[in-house]
Amino acid sequence: MRQCAFCRAESVKLSAEHVWGDWMSDLFGPAGELITQEHRSEGKVRRWRSARMDLTAKVVCKKCNETWMSDIEAQIKTSFSEIILLGPRFSILQRGVFLLAAFAFEKAVIADHLHMRENPFFEFLD
Predict the structure, then answer these.
(1) Contacts (Cβ under 8 Å, ≥6 apart) of 20
(2) CB 53 within 8 A of CB 107
(3) Domain contains 22
(4) Which of 14, 24, 105, 107 reaches 20 to 30 Å from 99, CA-CA?
(5) What domain range includes position 91?
(6) Any idea what DSSP says for residue 57?
(7) Quick check: is 39 in a domain?
(8) What is the structure's pLDDT at 2?
(9) Sequence-ordered list of residues with C-beta below 8 angstroms from that of 88, at least 6 positions apart, any chain
(10) In whole angstroms, how large is the CA radius of gyration of the chain?
(11) Cα atoms in the Cβ-side hemisphere of radius 13 Å centred on 43
């Protein structure tokens, strides 16, 4: 059995989490050109072209994916969509800094676990 990257729950089938959420692809609208994506693991490189940023990792349990992770994603979408799309000057209040840090950490853990290494950069200590 595999363990959730965040809560250590064991599951035969972990939930797929997008490295970049569907909402980010939606934010940029219909693609004029395809996005080249790649995944490197164990010396192998997998490349593909897609109209969407669709890289996923099956490294989280359903409960984490559908609760706190979903909440962070929804808050980031609401708070940062305009900034991502238009790039205006902005100031971030303390709450926004915490939200952005949580989002960045969550995505870093997911991307790191894509490689299925024995020692990911984040793991629980016993």
Answers:
(1) 53, 55, 107
(2) no
(3) yes
(4) 14
(5) 2-113
(6) E
(7) yes
(8) 82
(9) 82
(10) 16
(11) 0
Confidence (pLDDT) at 38: 74
**What pLDDT, on a 0 to 100 scale, did the predictor assign at position 99?**
94
pLDDT digit string (tens) for the chain, length 126 residues: 788 888 888 887 888 888 888 888 888 766 666 777 777 766 778 787 777 777 788 889 999 999 999 999 999 999 988 888 888 788 888 989 999 999 999 998 888 877 665 666 666 655
Report yes or no on 20 lying in a domain: yes
Neighbours of 101 (CB within 10 A): 10
**126 located within any domain:** no
Q: Tell the burial category of 30 from Cβ atoms under 10 Å away from its Cβ (0-12, 13-18, 19+).
A: exposed
Residue with the two structure tokens 């669709």: 54
Per-residue pLDDT at 17? 86
Please enumerate in sequence order all residues whose Cβ is within 8 A of that of 78, keeping only pairs 6 or more positions apart, or say none.
none
Here the contacts of 79-87 (C-beta below 8 Å, separation 24 or greater) are 81/23, 81/27, 84/24, 84/27, 85/27, 85/28
